[in-house]
């Protein structure tokens, strides 16, 4: 797009994010008659264990669309469209994501520091946020049963996201000073 844009984003602990993502897609819709945009993902998530989902969706990182759960998703999105295709262990992908977060995003937040993040983001954009802004977030309504094999697969498939998140936490701390 052309024009003058200013960006902000929120990041989340990558392991928590991936586990939540998997089970959020798995859960039935509020309206049982709704066959929404993530129907194909829902079918896949109900057939494939969390430990195997990243292998089954690896080809999706080429076109990062919708709600497919893929490896290093936060890093891929922050790196930008031209970097999405890179391998899951690409240091170039991580370097680009870090640079974009640092230099191209006006502000960013961390989900586990939500109130501080809202204050930083609103200050960066000179927005007035009502004191009762409330915290609305989507919640997973089904029980998250996660085996050690699942957790290991999530960690292994999000190594770049883990490094990016550590970087973001440190950058957030520095900017808060």
What does this structure look like?
- With 177 residues, this protein is mainly alpha-helical.
- The protein has one domain.
- 50% of the residues lie in helices and 6% in strands.
- It is built from eight helices and two strands.
- The chain has helices at 14-26, 39-47, 50-56, 73-79, 91-104, 114-125, 148-156, 159-176; strands spanning 7-11, 105-110.
- It has a two-stranded parallel ribbon.
- Helix 3 packs parallel to helix 7 (148-156) and helix 4 (73-79) crosses helix 5 (91-104).
- The longest helix has 18 residues, at 159-176.
- It is globular and about 45 Å long.
- The mean pLDDT is 89.
Short structural description:
This protein is mostly helical and 177 residues long. It is built from 8 helices and 2 strands. The chain has a two-stranded parallel ribbon.
SSE topology:
Elements: E1 7-11, H1 14-26, H2 39-47, H3 50-56, H4 73-79, H5 91-104, E2 105-110, H6 114-125, H7 148-156, H8 159-176
Parallel strand pairs: 1-2
The percentage of residues in β strands lies in 5-15%
Order of helices and strands: EHHHHHEHHH
State the strand order across the main sheet.
Answer: 1-2
Largest sheet: 2 strands, parallel
Round the Cα radius of gyration to an integer and report it: 17 Å
List the total number of helices: 8
Shape: globular
Which class of secondary structure composition applies to the elements?
A: mainly alpha
Contiguous uncertain segments of 5+ residues: none
Oligomeric state as shown: single chain
Q: Give the N-terminus to C-terminus distance in angstroms.
A: 33 Å
> Any idea how many domains?
1
Q: Tell me the total number of β-strands.
A: 2
